[in-house]
Structures are given as structure tokens and as C-alpha cells.
Amino acid sequence: MTPDVEQKVKELIEKAKRDGIKNVNPSTAVRNGSSLHMIIKTKQQAEAFMRSLRAAQNS
Amino acid sequence: MAIVVKLDFTNPYNIDSITDDLRVSTFRTELQNGSFMPLKVEISSEPHELVPTVFNLAFGPVNDKGEIDDKAEIRHKDYSKVFSSILLAGLTYLSHNDHHFLGIDGSNNARAYLYYRFLQKNFDYLNKFFDVYGLKYYVRISRFGKHQYDNPFDFNDILPGTERIGKDTRIMSNLMYNYFIFNLKHS
Hints:
The structure holds two protein chains of two kinds.
Chain A: H1 3-19, H2 43-58
Chain B: E1 15-18, E2 24-30, E3 36-43, E4 54-60, H1 79-96, E5 101-105, H2 109-121, H3 123-126, E6 130-136, E7 140-141, E8 153-154, E9 159-164, E10 179-184
């Protein structure tokens, strides 16, 4: 790390020590993914998704 | 309008608040209309469900529940300063958690491509601090509309492991990584 960036990192750490707040409500845990992607780990999940799509199409 | 980002960790926005575990910080970005908007940077307290040792880094404005809206479209006045602030927060966290990796989700294909361009344009600078990897852990849905009832999944475009992104790495925009992973460079 370059000295000037190291200084910026130190400043942030000092700020966190000095006036950092205790955190964090687990309900604010970061969400992954979005509606534009689907996390599908297996072909079985993909097939289940396809079945639900086709059921929706036929209903 | 093309967005140009030149990262400089010595020129971030002032950090308004940061937690003592260095996971959550806030700063205000100046918008193109001259107003300011608070942004939150949050590193997950739990490792990624699919990629252990990786902790997700999300950023964006918060909604009324305090959750980050990572799909918000914001017109920043200074994109370089915004992304420098976000990555400086990540660098600070990694300086105290040097065995962790940070992951940034592309959120959608267009945004993932934008992040990839930022990485490439700033490769030499970032390479002083981080090793950067790409990952495709989603099955991409390649068709929408009336054809989506045919098999829309592109099972050929999954990358089961991480791939180091180098200066000369080239990847087509429609086959873009959807997750970018950083760790502290150990020289």
C-alpha cells in the first residue's frame, strides 16, 4: 500500500475507533442478487422453475 | 454519456460515519443537480452463501427501512470520487481482515459491464492494492418474453470457480462476470 493511501486508511480506522457506532442490526444484512438474475444452483432447481413457468402459462 | 472513472484513494468524499468493525460507512455524494445524497457502503457480516470467505460489499442510497437500494439510478457529479470512496472503505476493511475477500454484485448485466470497464481502466492503480477476480455463479436467463417458456437457461455460461482478471482479460459484454471479488494484494 502506498504511504498516502495508507494514511487515508489509518484516518478511517481512527475515525471508527473515535466515533464509530456499534453496528449492525442483522436485518440490514446485505442482500445478494436481484430480480434480473436468478440464483439457480442446480439443474433440478432450473427444472422446477420451468415447471412453475409452464404451470403459470397453462393456468 | 460515457462515464469515466479514475480511481484515487487519496481523494474520496469525507466519510460521515463508520462502524467500529469497519463494515458500514456513509458519505454524501454530490449529484449533477447540485444536491447531495447520502450513500451507504455495507460489507456483509456473513460470508456469501455460495462463495465462503467472500463478504458481499453493497452500496447505494438507503430506503426508509435503512436497506441499500442497489438498483437505484443516480447521476453523480463525480463518479471517480464516489467509487474511490466505496473502494477505500473496502480497502480499509480488508486492512483489518486480510484473510477475507470482498464481493461486488453486478446487479444486472449492464451494470456488471460498467464495473468491468472501471476495473480495466483502473487496472494498474487497483493492482497496487488488490487482486481482482470474476465469477459467474448465476445461471443466466437468456430469453424473455414469449420465448421464455422454452428453456431460457444458459448452462454453458457458468464459471464454477473464480477467474483472475488481468490487464489483458477480455470478455464479451453479453458473457460478463456477474460478481467481482477483491482481496488484499499480498506482495
